[in-house]
Amino acid sequence: MSKIITAKEVAEIVNKAITEPRDVPWQREIHNVCDAHEAFLTGLGDLIASSFGGEYLTLSGSLGGDGLGHCLHFQWNKAVPVDGGIYADYDIDVSLDEWMAGFDKC
Fold first, then answer.
1. Which is more confidently placed, 46 or 102?
2. Residue pair 105/75 in contact by the 8 Å Cβ criterion
3. SS3 (DSSP) at 71
4. What is the distance between the alpha carbons of residues 62 and 71, in angstroms, rounded to a whole number?
5. What is the value of pTM for the model shown?
């Protein structure tokens, strides 16, 4: 028999894994919570890019004590909707034109 988890419950699990990684019971083979958390965020970066366009580039830690915590970096690509898609409401200091300008058109 399978265990059923609703979409809302999946969101709760993902939220807890992101915001409270030390309180999440990671799979038994994982011995380092920090590595597990970073691998989880990297997997989410790949999932976000494959679902909404863009290219997931990298995961960074807190940038100079700015309080942001881990940050996922995405590059624009032709799969992103012309209005910026899901990314439009985030990192608004970078305009869509600036984001698109960094795209390697080759």
1. 46
2. no
3. strand
4. 7
5. 0.85
Q: Which of 78, 73, 71, 76 has the alpha carbon at shortest distance from 97?
A: 76
- Residue that has been written with the tokens 């992103």 in this structure: 80
Is 44 buried (19+), middle (13-18) or exposed (0-12) by CB count in 10 A? middle
Instruction: Please give the Cα distance from 78 to 67 (Å, whole number).
Output: 32
Q: How many CB atoms lie within 10 A of CB 42?
A: 15
Q: Which residue has the tokens 């309180």?
A: 23
Largest CA distance in the chain: 51
Reading the block at residue 50, the tokens are 């494959």
The burial of 58, by beta-carbon neighbours within 10 Å (0-12 exposed, 13-18 middle, 19 or more buried), is given as exposed
Judging by beta carbons within 10 Å of its beta carbon (0-12, 13-18, 19+), is residue 17 exposed, middle or buried? middle
pLDDT, tens digit, for every residue of 70-94?
A: 899 999 999 999 999 999 999 999 9
